Amino acid sequence: MFDHINQKKVLLDANRPLPKYTVKSLREKLLLEWTYNTNAIEGNTLTINETKVVLEGITVGGKTLREHLEVLNHRDAIHFVEEIVQKSEPLSEWQIKNLHRLVLKGIDDEYAGEYRDQQVFISGAKHIHPTPFRIREEMEQLMAWYEKAETKKLHPVARGAMLHAIFVGIHPFIDGNGRTSRLLLNLELMKDGFPPIVIKVENRIAYYDALDKAHTQKEYDDFIKLVEGEVEDSLNLYLSTINKNA
C-alpha cells in the first residue's frame, strides 16, 4: 500500500542532509501552510498571507484576538513537536496535554491541557463522543493501543493516521482537539523521518467524511489513504529541491 511513498522516502534519505538554507526555507513554508490550513479547517478566517504577517508579529485589523492567538499558539506547539522529535521522547499523555495546553493558551486557560468535564457534540458528525467520565479510560486505552507491538509494526503513515483518528474520536478536550490531533499525526510521521504534512482546508469535507467513517464503522482505510496523499505531497516538495540542487 505504501510502496510509492516508501520509494520517495528512500530517495529523500539518500540525499540527506539537504542544504542548510533549503531546510530552513522548507521548514518555514510548511510551518506557515500547516498553521494556516489547520486553523482554517476549524473556522479561523485569517488568509494565508494574514497568517504569515501574524507569525511575523504584526496585528491584522478586523480580526479577533482569538484568531491571532490560534496562529501564535500553533507555532509554539509545532516547536514543541520538533523538540520531542529531536529528543526522541516517547509519546505520553503528559505530552498530549502539554500540546493541547499550548494550543489553547490565552484562549481558554481553564481548559487548556485539561480533559473535558462536559459532553460535546459535533454538528454534521454521526459519531457521538464518549461521556466525560469515560475519557480517562479511553485515553488509557489509546496509549495502551499505541504501545502494542502490533501497533509499532504498522507503517508510520497508518500508525499516525490511526492515532489521529482514535484521539479525535475520543475528543478528550472541550476545544482544540482537531489541531491537537493533527499535531500528533505529524509528530508520529516526523519521528520516522517523514516531513510534516498539511491537511489542506480544501480537503476538509473528505477529511471529515473519512474520520466519521473511521469512528462509526472502525474502517480506517479512507482516512489512511487521505493522509498518504498528503505525505506524498510533502515528499514531492522536498524531492523538488533535490532536483534543483542536483
UniProtKB/TrEMBL annotation:
<feature type="domain" description="Fido">
    <location>
        <begin position="91"/>
        <end position="229"/>
    </location>
</feature>
<dbReference type="InterPro" id="IPR036597">
    <property type="entry name" value="Fido-like_dom_sf"/>
</dbReference>
<feature type="binding site">
    <location>
        <begin position="175"/>
        <end position="182"/>
    </location>
    <ligand>
        <name>ATP</name>
    </ligand>
</feature>
<dbReference type="GO" id="GO:0051301">
    <property type="term" value="P:cell division"/>
</dbReference>
<feature type="site" description="Important for autoinhibition of adenylyltransferase activity">
    <location>
        <position position="42"/>
    </location>
</feature>
<feature type="binding site">
    <location>
        <begin position="207"/>
        <end position="208"/>
    </location>
    <ligand>
        <name>ATP</name>
    </ligand>
</feature>
<dbReference type="Pfam" id="PF02661">
    <property type="entry name" value="Fic"/>
</dbReference>
<dbReference type="InterPro" id="IPR003812">
    <property type="entry name" value="Fido"/>
</dbReference>
<keyword id="KW-0132">Cell division</keyword>
<dbReference type="GO" id="GO:0005524">
    <property type="term" value="F:ATP binding"/>
</dbReference>
<protein>
    <submittedName>
        <fullName>Cell division protein Fic</fullName>
    </submittedName>
</protein>
<dbReference type="InterPro" id="IPR040198">
    <property type="entry name" value="Fido_containing"/>
</dbReference>
<keyword id="KW-0067">ATP-binding</keyword>
<keyword id="KW-0547">Nucleotide-binding</keyword>
<keyword id="KW-0131">Cell cycle</keyword>
<feature type="active site">
    <location>
        <position position="171"/>
    </location>
</feature>
